[in-house]
Amino acid sequence: MATVGYEYSAEEPLNREPPVEDLVSSFFTESDGYDRNHGPIPHIDASEHIVRVDGAVENILELSVDQLHKDFAQHEVKAGVTVSDGQNAHVAFACFQTPCQEDSWYGGSIELERAMREDADVVLALEMNGNPLSPNHGYPVRVVAPGIAGARSVKWLDRITVQLHESANFYQQHDYKVLPPEAVDGESAKQYWHTVPAIQDMPVNSVVAVPKSGDTVAVSPDGTIPVKGYALPSGENGPVTKVEVSSDEGKTWNEADLISHPEDRENTKWAWTLWRAAVKVEPGHPRSVWSRAADKSGNVQPSCPQWNLRGVVYNGYGEAKDLTVV
Ligand SMILES: Nc1nc2c(c(=O)[nH]1)N[C@H]1C(S)=C(S)[C@@H](COP(=O)(O)O)O[C@H]1N2
Ligand SMILES: [Mo]
């Protein structure tokens, strides 16, 4: 470990997101305004940073960032995983650089099978869009586990452990889980945390970005208003295959145009999809616009999933409500 300084505190970590209309303005997000942290941001000296691979492996590895750069593709195989099929093994990722709000370290785990499968594209990332990772996104090395909740994509990675149980970290055991509706506060949640699985794959989702709830929108001569948003497939079931938009609270739906990767139109499995539509809306107030997405496996957004205490994996219809159409 070689931390040369911290930013922010464990009590008030950096958490922010850009305005949603900026998000949908281009396929590649230009503003670097999305950050999610449970603790301070460490500034690490990459030349001294080591990622240790241990647990149920034949060879414990101590990998420098330089080695990861030069020949990462070979390393997982080198380590020699020693668990057999059907053992329900996990790969735990850990960062010990800074304390977090609810634990003294940060960690998460995914299934070993998923981590090892080539088409699951779980990677140790050293770069983002061709540049070294910035400190806030995990410099010098982080996990990126596509399709899986961001909480498992551990930043400032110190250790990878192959083990027969999930990560013991707070954020795997007592957060990022869908609790039953009987859990209504911290106290009543206590008896349920160990009964429900940790969130892994995220569900299909879509968001209406333009207009925003409460906006006043001018109707075009053809009686339509422009609507823009984004959509995500569930887990490994990408790409998004359809987004529909309704301006009559779900009675009728119109198919939106999907905007995928500008250069690489084939390689869309993990990517989000931007979409736009022109929908007929009668002038007046209040008006609303809803969106719902479907993915390659036929998963469709529900209108409103069951409430849960942490409000996680919410994927009800996208919505802009309380619109004034003039
Ligand atoms: N070490 C560490 N890794 C972490 C976190 C953290 O607080 N500490 N937050 C997790 C969560 S909850 C998410 S959503 C993603 C966010 O990554 P980003 O800030 O680069 O978008 O990082 C994950 N990895
Ligand atoms: Mo997260």
From TrEMBL:
Residue ranges annotated for the Oxidoreductase molybdopterin-binding domain, each copy included: 84-171
A single MF term (Gene Ontology): molybdopterin cofactor binding
Name this polypeptide is given: Sulfite oxidase
Residue ranges of domain Moybdenum cofactor oxidoreductase dimerisation in the record: 198-317
UniProt entry keywords in alphabetical sequence: Metal-binding, Molybdenum, Oxidoreductase
GO cellular component, one term: mitochondrion
Cofactor (UniProt): Mo-molybdopterin
UniProt record, GO biological process: sulfur compound metabolic process
